[in-house]
Amino acid sequence: NYDIMSTDRIVRKEILKSQQSDFICINALVINYLSAGRAVVDSVDLIVKNAYGEDSDEYIGFRDTVLSKEYDNNFTYRLFYHLRNFSQHLHLPVSVNGCICSFDFRQILNTPYYKANKALLNEMEKHVKLASKNGTSMLYSFSLSLANYTCAVAKIYKNSLPIIKDLLCEFHDVISTWIKDDPELVKHKDQKYDGYVFYNRSENDIPDVHGFDTRSNSVEMVERFIKEAND
């Protein structure tokens, strides 16, 4: 939709037919991007937690060495983590001045009816005060911060896959043994379902049927995902 320069200059492409101003379009796209990044992180967090259990060494290790480490060591990731909440309160995070985009810390700090994480607010205030001493405004880079956030989310996703792969390998071996011992598990009256295993996780007599295709190799799939993530 836009060409973004490393100088934070942004130019609308002709394919974007919206009649809204660049200010509205850019904020809408960035808010969507922040939400998408948060969804990826929340999803892999939940997958590892559900796979091994909240008190497991695997989940605690993932939380401490991947999730918390990225949050603690990456200011941009912390900033965007909270700007997503900021946008959920119907505030617009991106400042647009002509064709230059930025994140204006002073404007964010002065936004009424919103209180972010106190530690992050203190960090932002320090940046604003330092900029004021130098006679400038604290405008945080648009293009570099988006790139930084992308790398942070990609790193979290990449580091979650080997943990998931270990458990999938165990499941794959168990399921292969089941089918070898009882081939009828994947044979069905309706032949279009041949190759699938169905199972019921119902509680209180309410049907809750799940299924999966045993012909697909989950281990190979995750190995492909790992390669793509590393690339």
How would you summarize what this structure contains?
With 231 residues, this protein is mainly alpha-helical.
Strand order of the largest sheet: 3-4-5
Ranges where pLDDT stays below 50 over 5 or more residues in a row are none
The N- and C-terminal alpha carbons lie at a distance of: 25 Å
Helical run tally: 7
Please tell me what the overall shape is: elongated
Order of helices and strands: EEHHHEEHHEHEEH
Mind summarizing the main beta sheet?
3 strands, antiparallel
Q: Helices and strands: which structural class?
A: mainly alpha
| Helical proportion, percent range | 55-70%
Q: C-alpha Rg, in Å?
A: 24 Å
Number of strands: 7
Relative strand content: 5-15%
Give the overall pLDDT as a whole number: 91
Structural commentary:
With 231 residues, the chain is mainly alpha-helical. It is built from 7 helices and 7 strands; from the N terminus they run ββαααββααβαββα. The protein has helices at 22-52, 57-73, 75-88, 105-109, 118-133, 142-181, 218-230, and strands spanning 2-4, 10-12, 95-97, 100-104, 139-141, 196-200, 209-213. The chain has a 3-stranded antiparallel β-sheet with strand order 3-4-5. Strands 1-2 form a two-stranded antiparallel sheet. A hairpin with an 8-residue loop joins strand 6 and strand 7 (209-213). Helix 1 packs across helix 3 (75-88) and helix 1 (22-52) runs parallel beside helix 6. The two termini are 25 Å apart.
